[in-house]
Amino acid sequence: MEQLKPTKFDVPLEQQWDKIIEEEKEALDAWFEEDRRHFLEELCDVQVAIETLKVHNFTEEEIAAMHEYVNNKNKKRGYFK
Hints:
Elements: H1 13-32, H2 36-55, H3 60-76
């Protein structure tokens, strides 16, 4: 499975947050319309927007360390199989 990639566009932080909020709203609308395909598409768009936010504001090392920290925290909470 191919992972979603961040965009190459480096825009101001406020615009990046606006994009995430816009995509989340579209996902929520699709959920309430019971349009599963559109809902999944919008979730993927949210993920791309978040990945873009991360890569333009943090180093690869910071991101990797935080991913490890969050995964370990969620393992302790029993969220993973």
